[in-house]
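Task card 7
Instruction: Convert sequence to structure tokens.
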Amino acid sequence: MTSDLRRFAPATARNREAIRQVLENEWPAQGNVLEIASGSGEHILYFARHASHLNFQPSDPDPEARASIAAWCLHDALPNVAPPLPLDVLEHGWENALPQSEALLCINMVHIAPWSATTGLLRGAKAVLVPNGLLYLYGPYRRGGQHTAESNSAFDHSLRERNPGWGVRDLETVERQATDQGFTLQRVVEMPAHNLSLIFRKSAGSL
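Output:
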């Protein structure tokens, strides 16, 4: 009997519909959607099921995560989801040889990774996305240097205890870094559990 390699993330079951509702108003009419740090794979399979007109490309640097994504792909058998790629935004040039994408998603990575992962993500997104392409980031953020809830403050403390390079980032710092790479923050959407959806678009003249 073959073991089931699918992972189940409780947070995904709680937030995926709220995220899908935000993305529903942002999806391109057609094209490719690249997800960075796909984790268990549950998010991208859920989105692909509800956006059958798009082609979805999951990725994750962790082999066990990719095994879970592949298992979900096998289980759901959706024709618009490709096998997961071993992308690591900490590696310079990860974006090379990837096809152009109309959208790039990154959910709950920015705070559970070193800051260099965010800068690598944004640098690569500039190369991968077409002009006016969607860059979607989701997670907890500080605003004006302050946490938006006591629970986020406690979460930030626990993250930094686990790894000093991790932590809840300042929205304004992320926006400045994205602006430097040719992105414009178009919308900030408040989400359940004190998270935020950040909607960036690649400037039309950005190469």
